[in-house]
Design a protein that fits this description.
The protein has helices spanning 7-19, 30-39, 56-66, 81-90, 102-119, 152-163, 171-179, 189-201, and strands at residues 2-3, 26-27, 45-47, 72-76, 94-97, 126-129, 132-135, 140-143, 146-148, 210-213, 217-220. It is of the alpha/beta class and 222 residues long. Strand 8 (140-143) and strand 9 (146-148) form a beta hairpin. The protein is globular. The mean pLDDT is 88.
Length: 222
């Protein structure tokens, strides 16, 4: 589903995606988009931010309250780092700034759908380091018996850290593997998210798991 109030853009996207064998529903405002989301099952949602009535950030939060796994790609003219952080905090999985090349949009859609398909494979997978547990099935994170609430992007970042325990991860590594983008040296979004994660899984515990390797990146170790 595409939720976009600029009719020409929405119809052009539907046409392009249709030519690539995707079935697309359109909504031109958040109220209609919400009703359609609640009435059907979608594999992916492309969401504008500047919508009449409810904005894209608020709609994304509503979507996340009902479904924690459906991929949400924000497509917007808002390009500031703070706008991107707000989008990820609302629960978006990816963020693409207008204007964009259609082939880049297609690449991101395919990556999101592939990731979701992999998530749907039953794994019974629980990753554990020290007293920290990450459950891939229930999407729950628990430390020392305390349940910790993470956003979708924070969960992906923690999973990447835990699957690469005791390994130094550069900002470029994290950008490519978690955000699926090339690292932009002009933005501190990765440092901001690592700090978010530290505040949730390390701040209130005596043993710290996420460590900074000066000049190199970050490492999760115990």
């Amino acid at each position: 589903m595409i939720i976009e109030d600029e009719v020409k853009i929405a119809k052009a996207l539907k046409k392009g995606l249709g030519e690539n064998e995707y079935i697309v529903d359109l909504a031109y405002d958040a109220v209609v988009g919400k009703k359609m989301f609640l009435a059907a099952s979608y594999d992916l949602i492309i969401l504008d931010i500047n919508l009449p009535g409810i904005n894209g950030y608020e709609l994304c939060k509503i979507i996340r309250n009902y479904n924690s796994q459906v991929p949400v790609l924000m497509l917007t003219a808002l390009s500031a780092t703070d706008d991107k952080i707000e989008g990820f905090d609302a629960g978006a999985d990816d963020y693409l700034v207008k204007p964009f090349e259609f082939k880049e949009l297609m690449a991101r859609i395919k990556a999101l759908l592939k990731r979701t398909a992999n998530m749907m494979i039953p794994s019974g997978n629980v990753i554990k380091i020290a007293d920290l547990e990450l459950n891939m099935d229930s999407k729950e994170v628990i430390r020392d018996g305390i349940k910790i609430s993470l956003t979708a992007k924070e969960f992906q970042l923690l999973e990447y850290f835990m699957r690469n325990r005791n390994r130094v991860l550069s900002r470029a590594d994290i950008a490519e593997r978690v955000w699926e983008i090339d690292f932009d040296t002009q933005t501190n979004v990765i440092d901001v998210y690592v700090n978010y994660l530290r505040n949730k899984i390390d701040k209130n515990f005596s043993v710290k798991l996420i460590h900074t390797q000066v000049g190199m990146g970050y490492m999760l170790k115990y």
